[in-house]
Amino acid sequence: MSKLLSMTLLLVVSLSASGLNAQDSLESKFLSDVRQVTSGMDKAGEGYFSPDGETIVYQAVPPGYPFYQIYTQTLEDGKPRRLSPGRGRTTCSYFSPDGKYVIYASSHLDPEIGQTEAKEFDQQEADRRSGRRRRYNWVFDPHMDIFRARTDGSELTQLTTAEGYDAECAYSPDGNQIVFCSDRDGDPDLYIMNSDGTGVRQLTDAPGYDGGPFFSPDGKWIIFRSDREKEKYLQIYAIGVDGKNEVRLTNDMSWVNWAPYWHPTEPYIIWCGADHSIPGQRPNYDLWMVKYRLEGEKLVVGPKIQVTDHKSADVLPVFSPNGKYLMWTSTRGPGRASQLWLGRLTLPSP
Q: To bridge 47 with a disulfide, which of 12, 58, 225, 231 should be the other Cys (CB 3.0-4.6 Å)?
């Protein structure tokens, strides 16, 4: 992480420059040297680190095209390099543990991709003319499948072929398995497959949406989000990779909690959440963290800790491989467009 450290020291954007008063900000207890790491795109987000922590992979909407594409860039030079084919919706990219491959979901094989693109262009133009700002709404594109490619985009290989939406994928720590979300059985559930796409098995089977899964650092647990208790009100869950010992980790039925992620070396889980209890009010998302422990075979969490308190949205947090940095998606920059931000992390006191 030496390049990341030296570059962070050279290119720091202060908290005050991003609209925060360091003395008044709650997040200054946990984050320092906060800076924006993506630019030049209409919007960017959902970034993940390479195993050595020096490169990131993320999704971004390039100027002149309506859908996210997948990009990599080193944190040293900050120059985006497109990895995905360049058409269709793409999302949920993730490095293999050996750093040689990236998996992501893409709809570039949509047989009516031209019509799909034209419809989105027309909608964006209508929004521009009306001044309307659409609220975030994820599309479960039935043409979305999971692909693997070298980090330069070569050797593109399709890993899923079942009818319906396959996306939201991540590798196991040993690189032998991939966990993902699929609606192949009628609603979005979690599945695990071998890294070559074989040996698919269903992990969850509950009404509603189960998605956004990640393996724990020891490979024994999967953390994910689900609205099975109340439609659209996501909560954080964990389940053993064997499908046993499922537990709900948040229980705020007026809140939406999503995008959970494990710390690589310490017993912490981070996610984003917001209170949706006030009708007509647009809630603001912040980052939250809990410390967890194992009691026998049960995963137990302590009280939640607020990590950010910026007036802009903060979502999709991920820890660096050494656990010393946090990267997340935020609208705190100029123009309030979603971009990736990076900060040095201080974990809560024991």
A: 58
